Every structure is written in structure tokens, then in C-alpha cells.
């Protein structure tokens, strides 16, 4: 069976009207190096669309259906995905600083190689969310569950991780330096691959049941003037 026909546009500055014409064709669309900056595309139906190296800065996809969509290498600072369906979407290699994913559905979504500084994922539904090679410094991720996930090369420096579920989570080359970890759960988590800088000995009880390295334990005990040999 041949692949279904698709729309392909390259190197164009598009309007909302032009996007709606593409939507009405009912075909999946590939936009390559296109400019959609600051467009209001709220509530649009765009499942399976692919955005390659597009300018999506401050574009609004609030309430849109972007299931199984792909965002590859996009410039998307300030983009808005509030209450957007991003199930099984791939967000790879782009700048999403100060973006909003509040209330988005991100089941089986993958974020890889992205700059997510200051991103807001408050109340996002993130079952099986996969993260790797990304910067989440100063991001808002309260109450999310990463239970039994493997987090690879994620920088959560100074992020708001209040009440996150990290039970049985494996951290590989990650940073939790100066993050807000209030009321997080770490039972049976493997924290040996995490930078715990900024964690005080008095706060170490939040890691009850987790696995840490001798070096990490030594750093905590050093706050009491004790040395581990």
C-alpha cells in the first residue's frame, strides 16, 4: 500500500488562513523552515503534522490536536500548548524556553535535545513521558510522575519539582542542583547519576529509600564536619 499523500511546504511565511486551507485538505502536512511566529492556531486539528526547523516563537496551539506530531529543530521560545493534545508527539532539538504546556496531554510524548528553560508543565498529563538530553532549568513541573522512568542527561537545576513522584526512577547524568524537591517521593530511586548540589543534610530525609553513591553520602556528611573513608 502506498503512503497517503501529504502536503509539503518549505521556506514560507504562513498565515492562519493558509494553515486552515491545509487543514481542510485532510492530509498530514510537513512544514520545513516555515515562519509561523505569533500565529493563533488554537483549537486547530493538526494530528500527524511535522514541523522542521520552523519559527514557532510565541505561536499558540492552545487546545489544538497535535497527536503524533513531530517538532524537529524548531525555534519556539514562548510557544503555547495549553490543554493541547500531544499524545505520542516527538519534540526534538529546539528552543522551547518559557513555553507553556499547562494542562496538555503528553502521554507517551518524547522530549529530546531541547532547551526547556522556564517551561511550564503544570497540570500536564504525562503518563510515560520520556525525557533525555534536555535543559529544564527553572521549569515548573510540580506533581508530575516519573515513576519507573529512566531520565537521561536532564538538567533540572532550580526547577520546581514539588510533589513529583520519582519512585523507582533511574537518573543518568542528571542534575537536581538547587531544585525545589519539597514533598517528592524517591523510594527505590537510583540517584547515583544525579548532581544533588544544594541539598542540605537536614533535607536528606526526602531521599529515604533511594540509592546514593558513597561520594554523595560523603558530601552530605561533610556538612556535619564528618569525613568518610
Task: Summarize the entry for a quick read.
The protein is built from 2 helices and 11 strands; from the N terminus they run E-H-E-E-E-E-E-E-E-E-E-E-H. With 229 residues, the chain is mainly β. The chain folds into 2 domains: 135 residues, Pectate Lyase C-like; 87 residues, Pectate Lyase C-like, CATH 2.160.20.
Total domains:
2
CATH superfamily grouping of the largest domain: E3 ubiquitin-protein ligase SopA
Largest sheet: 9 strands, parallel
> What string, H for helix and E for strand, traces the elements in order?
EHEEEEEEEEEEH
Proportion in β-strands: 15-25%
Outline the structure in words.
With 229 residues, the chain is mainly β. The chain has two domains: 1-135, Pectate Lyase C-like (3 Solenoid), CATH 2.160.20; 143-229, 3 Solenoid (Pectate Lyase C-like), CATH 2.160.20. 8% of the residues lie in helices and 17% in strands. The chain is built from two helices and eleven strands; from the N terminus they run E-H-E-E-E-E-E-E-E-E-E-E-H. It has helices at 16-24, 214-222, and strands at 7-10, 29-32, 50-52, 70-72, 90-92, 110-112, 130-135, 150-155, 170-172, 174-175, 194-195. The strands form two sheets. A nine-stranded parallel β-sheet has the order 1-2-3-4-5-6-7-8-9, with no helix packed on it. A two-stranded parallel sheet has the order 10-11. Helix 1 links the parallel strand 1 (7-10) and strand 2 (29-32). The mean pLDDT is 93.
